[in-house]
Write a structure and sequence with these properties.
The protein is an alpha/beta fold. It has 10 helices and 8 strands.
């Protein structure tokens, strides 16, 4: 697993000075992005609160959860275990209406599973962060040109080697592979150049085990300057 944070991209004009750089940095530090598809909004809120308490800050809810907008509104105001505002995003956003509803509910970012020009248009107009999905190199490059980031889906089809090839030509892109990845496989994807890895299943429910996932994925803190000099 890489022991340093990756370089982050220059942002397009509509995100210049925007919090997207802050979001991308949070993703790079967290390295595991939980993707929640729950049976109802209450369960989505409960699981989000548990993730925040375990050391997670950035969580992706999805439009497949009934009353997902209500869940976003209820979790967007929460804080993580360190007291930082939670960064709650919405995934599986594929229409103008979903994008508008998510942002109105307080979403910090939007994610689509595939190219979604209508969602991109909303993001540009509202100066919102949109991590657009793609699978082919052309789709991923287009998403990166638009916002500096792309979701690779379904990631398990190409494997970590596919991400490594993408990073060779898009070295500063924020790449978030998602789909069919188990928690134990996260180090392989990070070593291939992923900024963070979307995990939709397999995260433990035990609080201590869940906290260990995020602690284990985080890069080590740099040694103090004087300690490093004396080593």
């Amino acid at each position: 697993m890489p022991d340093h944070l990756p370089d982050l991209p220059d942002l397009p004009d509509h995100l210049s000075g925007h919090e997207s750089g802050h979001l991308y940095a949070a993703l790079a530090a967290q390295r595991v992005l939980p993707v929640l598809r729950e049976a109802d909004a209450d369960e989505a809120v409960r699981r989000t609160a548990a993730l925040l308490a375990a050391g997670c800050r950035t969580v992706e809810l999805t439009t497949s959860t009934p009353d997902w907008a209500g869940a976003v509104a209820r979790t967007a105001a929460l804080s993580d275990v360190h007291g930082r505002p939670a960064l709650i995003g919405v995934g599986t956003v594929t229409s103008t209406a979903q994008a508008e509803t998510a942002l109105d509910a307080g979403a910090a970012f939007l994610i689509s599973p595939y190219p979604a020009p209508e969602v991109r248009a909303v993001a540009v107009r509202r100066e919102a962060v949109f991590i657009e999905g793609g699978f082919t190199p052309g789709e991923i490059a287009a998403a990166v040109r638009a916002a500096g980031a792309a979701k690779v889906f379904p990631a398990h089809v190409g494997g970590p080697g596919f991400v490594r090839s993408l990073k060779a030509v898009l070295p500063t892109a924020v790449i978030v592979p998602t789909g069919g990845i188990r928690p134990a496989e996260v180090p392989d994807w990070l070593a291939a150049g992923a900024t963070a890895v979307g995990i939709g299943g397999g995260l433990p429910t035990d609080p201590d085990e869940l906290a260990a996932v995020f602690a284990g994925a985080a890069p080590p803190c740099p040694a103090p300057r004087d300690a490093a000099a004396g080593s």
